Amino acid sequence: MRLPCLLLSLMPAVTLAGPPADGLDAIAVYAGSWQTQMHHLDTPYSKAGIEHARLHNQCWRGQAFYACEQVVDGKPAALVVFLKGKGEGEYVTHAIPADGGHANDGTLEIQGNRWTFPWQFDDHGKTIHARVVNVFDGRDAIDFRQEYSADGVHWTAMATGRETRVR
To answer: Which ranges in 11-157 belong to alpha helices (H)?
Structure first.
């Protein structure tokens, strides 16, 4: 079972001291190096285990795009491209894996200190909803969780974790 937005769960978000930036400038919080700790749970879509990783996001901004090359434990993982969506706090995402696999298109929904990456996948003809939820915790840390739902209302955790900025 391949979950297309798992790489996005490794992207930390940070609360800045001032008001959050608008538009593509909001994505700039992803730049930098992070230590990631993740606890995977045993579910139909995840296998129990502990994961630690060092994540570096090399990011840059153009006029219409914000992009981050993700390097995990020293190995290129993906290029994630963001575009401003139509609604307030909405973004379009395109994750291009470094191994040449298929790109994954998605969305990012920002509501205050909660950033959500939702997506769906098919499980034997049944649509399963999934999401990564990032919740800001101060300037240099984030708590996150990966969840799935059969109805888009009731959610079951697949993984929880914390990311801390590395100075």
So the answer is: none
